[in-house]
Structure formats: structure tokens, C-alpha cells
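Researcher: Go.
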Amino acid sequence: MFIKIYYFTFFIFWINQIDTTGYRLADENEYTEYLFEVINYIRFPGEDSSMQHLTDGLMVNSDSIPNFIENLSLHLNFDNLTRIYDAINELLICRYTNVMEIFIKNIGLILQYCDSYHLKKQFYDFTDCIIKLHDALESSKTLFENLKNVIQFFSNLHMNYVLKMYRKKKNIINEISFINDRIRLKRKLDMNEYIDNNANPKVEMVIKDFENVKKFHNIISSMISFTSIKNNKYNSFQDELKSDDAMEHDNDSISCLDYVQLCNNLKVFYDEAFKHEYINLGFHNLLHPITPE
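Model: Structure:
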């Protein structure tokens, strides 16, 4: 199975790069078989016959289990193909929206710290906060690049090639691509970049960088429709958000973890999310398979 997945995966990336409808030259039966194997691999990436890895950590009310969770376990045949495909799509939306939500809220909290130092005219703390914030954003590159590749790959499966009447459901490629595209431009900064040759602070430059991150945060916050299904794998980060959310704009009463700790927590979160949402779901093998001999 994995050899076929390798060659068809290569084929899919090739046709997307050259932006053509050349996929129609593929044999319809072979492409149908490929879709079956990809979907089966996502559901059963190893020898284990369980699909627990797909919903692992998701906190779902037993009285109102979403349809997509039930559809994941349907018997894979031609009649159920689109229902299972749509279920996986909804699952990815749910899991990856959780990741983006935690990312957005943490970045928002760090921005509040930076804003507080700015209002107090504490230039050194303001600048250091911006530097740490850029570092936290830059450190998310690997996570969001890989999550974007997953969504891109899955949305590029041409289901309507074998089922002509199929209409794709919504996905989150725009949201996750927006984050990925902006993060790719980030780099690590240091204090010297905000000091001129006369040792004077470049205040306007710091403020400009601060406003750029605020704009990015505002745009992505407006793009995301947060999910009510949480992931208990990230409880420690979500719990911290609840307590940290007590931070008000009252400049004299900021009583929560400092921005350095928040930035460090974000880096830990990136590693955890990469493990749970990419490695444990088997996408490291599906998207980067070893070339068959």
C-alpha cells in the first residue's frame, strides 16, 4: 500500500506545482484506489486497528457526539467514501482550530504586556517584549508549515474526479496559510537592532514592529471560528490562559506570568502540537514517505 501512496503523493504534488488539470490523465480506477488507501492510512497509520489517535484528547459531550466522529468509523466503500473524507476534513478543522486558538490567545496576552510597557514608556521592557514576541512567532514556523501542508494535501485530493457530483466542504486552508505566510517572514531579533550608532533607541521602529504584530493578530483573530470542542492534551496551556486572562489594561495591576514565561510556554506548546497533530496522526510518513526501493 505504501508504495502506491508514495507514487500518487508525488503525482499530486507535481500536478499542483504546475497548476494543470493533468490529473484527469490518471486512470480513474487507480485514482479511486489511491483515495481509499490514503483515507485508510489516515484512519489506520500503523498495525493497530484502532482509530483512537484521530480523536485522542478531544473532549466531546457523550450526549451530543458530532456526526463526523461517528462517520470516521464507517466501513470504507464507494458509498461511504465522501462521508469518511468529509469526517476527516472536519476532524482536522477541529484539531487545528484548537491549535490556532491557543496560539492566538497567547500572542494576544504577550501583546498586552508589550502594550503596557509602551504606555508606561518603559522602552527597554517594551523592546525586550517585542524581541521575545518575535522569537515566539518565529519558533512556530515548523508547526504551521507542516499543518498547512496537511490541509493543503488533503484539500487537493480530487474527490470529484471519481464522484462527479461531489462538492467540497469548507476547510481552513486560508486561515492556516495566512499564519504560515506571515510567520515565514519572521526572524530572530536582538536589542542592537533597535539602537542606533549613537546608542539612542529607535522608538519608532519598535512601535512599527509592535503595530505590525497587532495587525496580524487582529486579522487572524477575525478569520478563525473557534470550536467548542477542546483538546485535553493542551489543558495546561488552556488553564494558564484562563488564569492569565485576568490581566487587565490597568497598568498598575498585571498579576500573571510574565511575557518571558508565556513565550517559553508557547515554544513548549509548538512541540506538543507538532507531536499530537502531525507525528501521531501519521502525516510525517504520508507527506514525506521513504522512496521505495
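Model: Residues 150 and 283 are 7 Å apart (CA to CA).
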